[in-house]
Amino acid sequence: MDNITREKTLAATAAVSRIKPNMIVGLGSGSTAEIAVQLLGEKVKNGMQITGVPSSVTTKKLAQTFDIPLITDAVPAKIDITIDGADEFDENLNLIKGGGGALLHEKIVASASRELIIIVDSRKTARPLGSSFHLPVEVIPYAHVIVEQTLCQLGSTPKLRRNNDKPFVTDEGNYILDCNFNTIANPQKLASDISQIPGVVEHGMFIGMATRIIIGSGETTRELQAT
Fold first, then answer.
1. DSSP 183
2. Residue 223: inside a domain, yes or no?
3. DSSP one-letter code for 77
4. Do 141 and 84 fall within a single domain?
5. Annotated binding-site residue? 86
6. Is the pLDDT of residue 227 over 90?
7. For residue 38, what is the domain's CATH number?
8. 20 a known binding residue?
């Protein structure tokens, strides 16, 4: 196991240790969250009763391989804990997510969660949003050209995400614009401005949603908690 995988596993293990029997658990997407799903699968195999809420088709398929009972028709109104990864976070625990393209479902699951635990490896440290990762914005295909123009007016350099020679398509059939804002000075205002653009489905800023970030670092973990 390489160092990064070990750190991801340490963070995932710490997060999964907070799961109790009969909880409804949000299952995040991405490589670090997938480790948490595997660990939860081991708990289910050993007799723990939990119910998972997957945040992507990929996560759903992975959870099914571990026989984790799932709610898949609609997100329940209350989820006890969601464990997910992040592409970037700042000192206030605001996040940028969506590198894997599941930002819409991830945000829906997170919004229903009593606690949102983010797990990352040591390569990710608190820094201003946008400084190391472009902001994903999910848009309906019909509107992607005009939304791209409007995002330029907000100071971004957007680029349509592609899968080989075709536009990347999300689980809901939408496109993603990856937007370079350099550093996002006011995440709350930018989030509001983007949300008001006709044709925007969702953006990848998770403002004030994370309750805890667990960082795998070397042979141990450290935690940041919302105040």
1. S
2. no
3. S
4. no
5. yes
6. no
7. 3.40.50.1360
8. no
- Return the pLDDT at 153: 97
- The reported pLDDT for the residue numbered 143 is 98
Residues with a known catalytic role: 106
Q: What is the strand order of the sheet 220-225 is part of?
A: 51-54, 24-27, 79-84, 113-121, 212-217, 220-225
> What does the pLDDT read at residue 91?
92
Helix 3-16 to helix 31-45 angle (10° resolution) is: 50
- Supply the range of the domain harboring residue 213: 3-127+207-218
- Residue 126 is predicted with a pLDDT of 87
- Which of 89, 86, 83 is CA-nearest to residue 130? 89
Examine the domain organization and report whether 86 and 160 are in the same domain: no
Q: Tell whether 2 is in a known binding site.
A: no
| Statement to judge: residues 49 and 145 lie in one domain | no
Using the structure block, give the residue that is written with the tokens 């800023």. 205
- Residues 109, 51 share a domain: yes
Distances (CA, A) of 105 to 5, 77, 108, 169, 198: 25, 14, 5, 14, 19
